[in-house]
Design brief:
It is built from four helices and six strands. With 132 residues, the protein is α+β, with helices and mostly antiparallel strands. The protein has one domain. The strands form three sheets. It has a two-stranded antiparallel ribbon with strand order 1-2. A two-stranded antiparallel ribbon has the order 3-6. Strands 4-5 form a two-stranded antiparallel sheet. Helix 3 packs antiparallel against helix 4. The longest helix has 21 residues. The two termini are 17 Å apart.
């Protein structure tokens, strides 16, 4: 999380790129800003910086992350998700990759992210995503 008037890192959450891709469609519901282009956009910039800064968008982000946390709280441990469609290099046989996460660790990272979003909303800060 970075304060609007300065680039001092205060907090962070780490989620694997494949997990961000898994929840990507819901993140596209967020109105964000790409400082590289100076343009408003929706969702996250995969290859660069994205800023989430408006209070209503930070609240929506908080609610989305909490919804994912609630959903994953009902999962078995480990959490196994269906990832991207891949091809075996030699046989060109296709398959869906399996994303496997420790339930407690994943929910803890999501909890940190939700807390940062709530803090940013209340205190006039923003969330910065550095791409996947």
């Amino acid at each position: 999380m970075i304060h609007k008037s300065g680039l001092t890192t205060e907090n962070y959450a780490t989620l694997e790129d494949e997990f961000i891709v898994y929840i990507y469609d819901s993140l596209r519901w967020l109105d964000t800003w790409n400082p590289s282009t100076g343009m408003r956009c929706s969702g996250l910039n995969n290859y660069g910086i994205t800023v989430i800064e408006e209070q209503d968008v930070l609240l929506k982000f908080y609610q989305l992350i909490r919804a994912w946390m609630d959903l994953f709280s009902h999962a078995t441990d480990p959490i196994v998700l269906t990832g991207n469609y891949c091809f075996d290099g030699e046989e060109q046989k296709g398959y869906y990759e399996k994303l496997v996460y420790n339930k407690l660790e994943l929910i803890n990272e999501l909890h940190k992210l939700a807390n940062m979003a709530k803090y940013a909303e209340i205190n006039g800060r923003c969330i910065v995503h550095f791409g996947i």
